[in-house]
Design goal:
The chain has 434 residues and is mainly α. It has a single domain, classed as SecY subunit domain (Preprotein translocase SecY subunit). The protein contains 18 helices and five strands. Strands 4-1-5 form a three-stranded antiparallel sheet. It has a two-stranded antiparallel ribbon with strand order 2-3. Helix 6 crosses helix 8 and helix 13 packs across helix 15. The two termini are 33 Å apart.
């Protein structure tokens, strides 16, 4: 039976997909619910000047919620920032490091701390945005400023992000795919029709030539194919299992392989990097610091400092996240425990060192690939001044999350003895972000 039939005939899978779609619909409806006290028309004018800034980039990740100043204006970025902080702390803080080793109970405790951190970051960022909006006088964005507006905005935006965090967790648990990643995916994908409409409007008015449109289309297609090609690439390390005699039966003696993905970290590095670069903009609004305002002006996607920091953070998070999620010592110990070994490599620590050696070089290649995908399309569109709403980071997230979700559906189908979702190939996913 085909995988397409399985989508309809497996009740549990059908319920999971339907639940995910309902949650995403709730998210998209909430984006159109405005936060009280703001002049929407004036805010639209302000965002026209902020389109190429870090706040404009943040608006893309929230699916337009920030420019509407809806209850979901902060999106899930505070949760991602909090996750970054606690993942870094698990490396340097022994208490969290020990919690991580405790299995599910320890991870639940760290998740709880991450939620508390999310609320704290929301309070800071929401207050910063409220203060920043009050500073716009021509046109006046805030109808009635003051502490009452700031407190109401802070509580509203914090509650919105906490609700989104809950929605993401519900999708991960009761739906299909990774909830937080799907929320970001939905926000970016929702901008596709607007981007196409703007491009067509500029073409009709003569502001954009056919050659430029074809060139941009070619870049988009090339970027999509490059991402799909690399995301499915892997280095397969051969593994042999020694024969074991148990009673009258012989076990083992088979050959298999250990697949190491070129991009083990997936879409996490650009998401984490973007989250950190966006953070100074809201802190600057709270502190009213001229130094931070100057830094924020330099952290525009078109500025060299932004791209240098962005690439540096991508490299850092590529190696860091890979090291956190892929434990070479654990892999080597499991191979030794079950009688597996890499031909020519001794079991135990030498095996761990060899896997780490291969993985480090793959991660370096993956970091270079992510950097090129995220930076070059954005520089290209900035150079030709075209309304390309989806830079490399957005395209990488769209393709990466889609591949992960399809891979989960395939796994679900195969576990129920159905054919895969794709008839002639298998979509290999990666560890989802949580």
């Amino acid at each position: 039976m085909s995988g397409a039939d399985g989508l309809v005939k497996i009740p549990e899978l059908r319920k999971r997909i339907l639940f995910s779609l309902i949650m995403l619909a709730v998210y998209r409806i909430g984006i159109h619910v405005p936060t009280p006290g703001v002049d929407s028309a004036a805010l639209q004018q302000v965002f026209l000047s902020l389109k190429n800034t870090s706040l404009g980039y943040w608006n893309l990740f929230t699916g337009g919620a920030l420019e509407r100043f809806s209850i979901f204006a902060l999106g899930v970025m505070p949760y991602i920032s909090s996750s970054i902080i606690f993942q870094l702390l698990t490396v340097v803080w022994p208490y969290l490091h020990d919690l991580q080793k405790e299995g599910d109970q320890g991870r639940k405790k760290i998740t709880q701390y991450t939620r508390y951190g999310t609320v704290l970051l929301c309070l800071v960022q929401a207050y910063g945005i409220a203060t920043g909006l009050e500073s716009y006088k021509n046109p006046a964005v805030v109808l009635h400023g003051g502490m009452a507006f700031r407190l109401m905005t802070t509580v509203t935006l914090t509650a919105g992000t906490v609700f989104l965090m809950w929605v993401g967790e519900q999708i991960s648990e009761r739906g299909i795919g990774n909830g937080i990643s799907l929320l970001i995916y939905a926000g970016i994908a929702a901008r596709v029709p607007q981007g196409i409409g703007s491009t067509l409007s500029m073409y009709r008015s003569g502001e954009l030539g056919l050659l430029k449109i074809l060139l941009v289309g070619l870049v988009i297609v090339a970027t999509f194919f490059s991402i799909i090609f690399v995301e499915r690439g892997a280095r397969r390390i051969p593994i042999q299992y020694a024969k074991r005699v148990v009673g009258r039966k012989i076990y083992g003696g088979q050959n298999t392989n250990l697949p190491l993905k070129v991009n083990t970290a997936g879409v996490i590095p650009p998401i984490f990097a973007s989250s950190l670069i966006m953070f100074p903009a809201t802190i600057g609004a709270v502190l009213q610091s001229k130094a931070l305002e100057k830094l924020t002006s330099l952290l525009r996607p078109s500025e060299m400092l932004y791209n240098v920091l962005f690439v540096g953070l991508i490299f850092f998070f590529s190696f860091f996240y890979t090291a956190v999620t892929f434990k070479t010592d654990d892999v080597a110990d499991n191979l030794k425990k079950y009688g597996g070994f890499i031909p020519g490599i001794r079991p135990g620590q030498p095996t761990a060192q060899y896997i780490d050696y291969v993985l480090s070089r793959l991660t370096l290649g993956g970091a270079v690939y992510i950097s090129l995908i995220c930076v070059l399309p954005s520089l290209f569109t900035e150079l030709f001044k075209v309304p390309f709403y989806f830079g490399g980071t957005s395209v990488l997230i769209l393709v990466g999350v889609a591949l992960d979700t399809v891979a989960q559906v395939e796994t679900f189908l195969l576990s129920r003895n159905y054919e895969g979702f794709m008839k002639h190939t298998r979509v290999k996913g990666r560890a989802a972000y949580s």
